[in-house]
Write a structure and sequence with these properties.
Radius of gyration of chain B: 21 Å
Number of domains of chain B: 3
Shape of chain A: globular
Number of strands of chain A: 11
CATH superfamily of chain A: Phosphohistidine domain
CATH architecture of the largest domain in chain B: 2-Layer Sandwich
Largest sheet of chain B: 5 strands, parallel
Largest sheet of chain A: 9 strands, mixed
Radius of gyration of chain A: 13 Å
Number of domains of chain A: 1
CATH topology of the largest domain in chain B: Aconitase, domain 3
Oligomer: heterodimer
Helix content of chain B: 40-55%
Distance between the termini of chain B: 58 Å
CATH class of chain A: Alpha Beta
Structural class of chain A: alpha/beta
Order of helices and strands of chain B: HHEEHEHHHHHEEHEHEEHEHEHHEHEHEH
Structural class of chain B: alpha/beta
CATH architecture of chain A: 3-Layer(bba) Sandwich
Shape of chain B: globular
Strand order of the largest sheet of chain B: 11-10-9-12-13
Largest interface: A-B, 42 and 45 residues
């Protein structure tokens, strides 16, 4: 299968390279937002750059700061191209709305197990579709 | 989405551009989650430290406050989470001028919009706790989980822009924890061990939060042998929200929506998890990696008057070799001053700060400016956060942390 339907979606259509891990996401807890990499040592993507990538992760973690931070990251151009999660909390949805970041969430099955790391994917939020190219 | 007359008027701009921008933001969030209407809220609480906002967020806030000829105001009482500094202690933290400037601009913009700068993450202890069934729009995970679980109020995690929008419109989309169905228990946990110290309560919250795993899971915990204090549940909830992104828990026989297990639907769940002292000690052990400390911090959540009293007692007869920071709310600080707690803590070489929270106060910048890396704390929430800021966070009881400030070593 190379096409996946999400239950929730927002943002503009994008195409890019997937960065995949079975781990959570919080802009405050996990990122060096100036350098553009995962900085929390225990994170499975520690040390890897997220800039311009389609982040495919399990779920939103941590606090409420991501609601502001996604827009701040966008203002400097150091931000993931899109966020794709098995589940999100309201903070990431609110942050995606505020920061105008493409976000997909809620799939049948574990999306982190179905998208190969490094795959080129296309996201159509209007149809709530992610497609592996 | 169903809108009533006033909501349609807001959307059409008839009540000003600011209200229009706010409700447009809320409608997009509502549509993402499939909310069918709005629910009126009585209070909003905004997390908006300037490390999170950055220059772009501050500019956005200033432009919002300038709209409608600067006449826009919040429609319900709207208060703030901790700021990014304590201006009276900025020199101790070595906060740079640009940080203070961003903070001042943010405060000016919020004040113009009618927001009350309470600067606290323990508003349920200090400002006005919501009551059972009260719908609010709170914007700090620790505040939300306490309000939902202990008070029986109703709130989702409301990030800064959404909490401000709720203040400006007086409502929030009805989804998540505003709905009865979302408040039912989804995971049943039993413990045969009741913590005594606050850091043990925090660690138990973290263990349960990890089991819960995501925002939409609601744990019900059975087996506690005594009723926890407000401070215990503050640490328990804050750590659970941090480790699990959890927004609500039930304690069977204790919290208001689980007086009986069946009240929260817990009886229909298989008892899937047993946790106890071993799990708590294992979690704490993950944050016991070094002995030497550079700084000791009590924060996250801000300290209550009772916590400051305990700390002041522990400071008697000591002289600290390492910085010790105790961070509380602007509401508690004057009482701490009056009771002499501040003087006793600072007499030993510590610092009592207010209106900020350590991890929301440019943690990376102050680490670099002060040469701090190994940080000891009794806050399970804070150790979960600070690794990403380059710290080696060390978790210990308040007694061991105070001793470490005196000797430089965690024993």
């Amino acid at each position: 299968m190379n096409e996946f339907k999400a239950r929730h979606a927002i943002g503009a259509p994008v195409k890019g390279q997937a960065l995949v891990a079975t781990d959570g996401f919080s802009a405050r807890y996990d990122l060096d937002r100036i350098g553009g990499s995962f900085s929390r040592p225990a994170h499975k993507l520690a040390g890897q750059s997220y800039n311009g990538k389609v982040l495919v992760l399990d779920t939103a973690k941590g606090g409420v700061a991501s609601a502001w931070m996604l827009r701040e990251m966008a203002s400097r151009g150091v931000i993931p191209l899109a966020l794709v999660f098995n589940s999100v909390n309201p903070i990431l949805a609110q942050g995606a709305v505020f920061g105008e970041v493409t976000l997909l969430a809620g799939f049948d099955g574990d999306i982190t197990a179905q998208i190969p790391n490094g795959a080129i994917v296309e996201i159509d939020p209007a149809r709530k579709i992610l497609r592996i190219l | 989405m169903n809108l009533n007359d006033i909501e349609r008027a807001m959307r059409a701009g008839e009540l000003g551009r600011v209200a229009q921008l706010a409700i447009e933001h809320q409608i997009k969030v509502a549509e993402f989650f499939g909310a069918v209407d709005f629910v009126p809220v009585t209070q909003a609480h905004i997390m908006a430290d300037t490390e999170s906002l950055g220059e772009s967020g501050v500019q956005w806030l200033e432009s919002l406050a300038a709209q409608d000829n600067g006449s826009a105001r919040v429609r319900v009482p709207t208060i703030t989470d901790p700021r990014g500094t304590d201006f009276a202690k900025a020199a101790v933290l070595k906060h740079a001028g640009w940080i203070l400037d961003l903070e001042r601009r943010t405060i000016a913009a919020f004040t113009k919009l009618g927001v009350a700068m309470t600067d606290t993450c323990i508003n349920y202890q200090t400002i006005q706790a919501p009551v059972r069934g009260e719908s609010v729009a709170f914007g700090d995970t620790g505040v939300v989980i306490y309000s939902n679980s202990v008070c029986g109020a109703r709130s989702n995690f409301e990030g800064g822009p959404s909490a401000l929008s709720a203040g400006l419109t007086g409502r929030t989309p009805r989804y998540g924890f505003h709905l009865d169905a979302q408040r039912r228990a989804t995971i049943r946990v039993r413990t045969a061990w009741t913590p005594k110290s606050l850091n043990d309560w925090g660690a138990l919250g973290a263990v349960v939060g990890r089991l819960a795993g995501n925002y939409w899971a609601v744990p019900v915990l059975e087996g506690l042998e005594s009723v926890p204090t407000s401070d215990a549940l503050k640490h328990f909830g804050a750590a659970m929200a941090s480790f699990g992104s959890s927004a609500m828990f039930h304690l069977a026989g204790i919290t208001p929506e689980a007086v009986r297990l069946e009240d929260c639907g817990g009886e229909r769940l298989r008892e899937a998890h047993r946790v106890g002292e071993a799990e708590v000690r294992a979690l704490q052990g993950q944050y016991a990696t070094q002995k030497e400390v550079d700084v000791v911090v009590f924060s996250a959540p801000q300290l209550s008057l009772y916590e400051l009293k305990v700390l002041a007692d522990l400071c008697e007869g000591r002289r600290f070799r390492k910085p010790l920071l105790a961070i509380t709310s602007p509401q508690v600080k004057p009482d701490s001053d009056r009771m002499g707690y501040t003087q006793r803590i600072e007499g030993a070489g510590g610092h009592v700060m207010s209106g900020m929270c350590f991890y929301q106060s440019y943690a990376r910048e102050i680490a670099e400016a002060n040469g701090w890396k190994r940080l000891a704390t009794n806050s399970t929430k804070m150790v979960n956060i600070l690794g990403g800021y380059g710290y080696v966070p060390l978790l210990a009881s308040v007694e061991r942390c105070v001793e470490a400030a005196e000797t430089g070593m965690l024993k």
